[in-house]
Amino acid sequence: MDINKAPKFEKIFNKTMNSKLIHEGIVYIEDTNGDFSWCKGYGGKEIDSSLLMASITKLFTTACILILQEQGKLSLNNKISEFIDKDTLSGLHIYKSKEYSFELFISDLLFQVSGLPDKFEEKKNSTKRKVINQDFPFSFGELLHWTKELKPHFAPRTKGKAYYSDINFDLLGEIIEKVNGTTLAEAYQQLIFIPLRLEHTYLPQSEEDFVPNIYYKDQVLKRPKFICSCRASGGAVTTAREMMIFIKAFYGGKLFNKEIFDALTYYKKLQITMGPICYGGGFMRIALGGLLMPFMEKGDLLGHSGSTGSFAFYYPQKDLFFVGDVNQFANPALPIRLSMQLATGVK
């Protein structure tokens, strides 16, 4: 890549930071070998500042599942009822009077094709609406109870259907604990943090652990109880520097054999509220080009974004990685839009 594109990245970054919604931000861009590296912060945010990963945590959960599969401890073809008590699962997925709770596979969760509803986003009493006004903890058992009160959207593995739901990854977190014989935080440490030497990435366990504040419009939200409860679907904390190390390892084969991506790159478009995002086996795909960018060279961004403004994407067509955070809970499209704009800055 032409290093003269750095000024274009800076222009895009500066324009984005001019948004009235954004109070702080960080963007870090590198190629695989680090021959090209560009980073800029705003509002006091720097490359080693703590940031909330939110749903980028799902990539860490995905990595653990793939590592455990490589170790022969589970298979994506295992039913989740092999790891989670049937009494716990009973009533979780009843669609058109038929129960599918015991017919769910690990792969259904990973690919977001279980059809399970999402308590975080759905209904007027969603946890997203509630957490804007107050901090509160919740247990996995409570999350299951709330999910059972909602209606699934389709039968598992319905052709052409995918629905983004946090509960899919919360269930995967429970499976990781069962199979690894540790807490999820210990599994992350053992399988990811130690091998990659990540010293400032962690899953908060209590209010004593540092949890970055979140912006909702102009309001500063301090929500440690809620973040500690999110766990496998959105509870981890990191820095831009260490998120770059992780995303390179995830797609570069340092954590698991990257040949597994041959089986993970079957993408389905998510619900309409998720915009242009499609989902594969544990990660997002955002297609570039098309009607929105008619002059853009075709390609894809692979990775994940978070509802609090975080993003970590790989642009394989140009061998570039984009990570960062705009820390704004009011508009989850912001990190997606910024990532796509940064990609258009590459020739």
UniProtKB/TrEMBL annotation:
It comes from the Bacteria. Pfam families: Beta-lactamase. Residues 52-331 form the Beta-lactamase-related domain. InterPro entries: Beta-lactam-related, Beta-lactam/transpept-like, Diverse_Enzym_Activities. Signal peptide: none annotated. This is Beta-lactamase family protein.
